[in-house]
Amino acid sequence: MLVAFSVTPIGAGEDVGELVAEAVRVVRASGLPNRTDAMFTTIEGEWDEAMAVVKAAVDAVAARASRVSLVLKADLRPGVTGALTSKVETVERHLAGDG
C-alpha cells in the first residue's frame, strides 16, 4: 500500500519545519520506501508496518506539540510493490510522449 500523510503541529507557531522534520526523521529511519514533498510524505509498505510508521511520526510531533493534525490518504493494492516510483514513472513516460 501507499500512504501519503501530513503531520502538522497545532499551536506551535507559523514555522513548524523543525517539528515536521521529527516526523520525517521517523519515516526515514523506518526503512520503508518513502518520499517527502512540500505537502505530504508518502511511504510504501504493508498495512501494519505503514500504519505503525504513521503513528510513530505523529507521536514524535505530539511529543513537542500539544495538538497535532493528521491528513492521510492510502492506496491499497494487494500484491503491488514499487508503486512509489512506478506511478510517477508512468506519468512521466506519458508526458514524454512514449506511452
Write up this protein.
This protein is an alpha+beta fold and 99 residues long. It has a single domain (2-95), classed as Alpha-Beta Plaits, CATH 3.30.70. It contains 3 helices and 4 strands; from the N terminus they run βαββαβα. It has helices at 17-30, 47-62, 83-95; strands at 2-10, 34-36, 41-44, 67-75. The protein has a 4-stranded antiparallel β-sheet, covered by helices on one side. β2 (34-36) and β3 (41-44) form a beta hairpin. α1 (17-30) packs antiparallel against α2. The longest helix is centred in the middle third of the chain and has 16 residues, at 47-62. The two termini are 25 Å apart. The relative contact order is 0.25.
Order of helices and strands: EHEEHEH
CATH topology: Alpha-Beta Plaits
| Mean pLDDT score | 91
CATH class bucket? Alpha Beta
What does the main sheet amount to? Answer: 4 strands, antiparallel
Beta strand %: 25-35%
Fraction in helix = 40-55%
What is the count of helical runs? 3
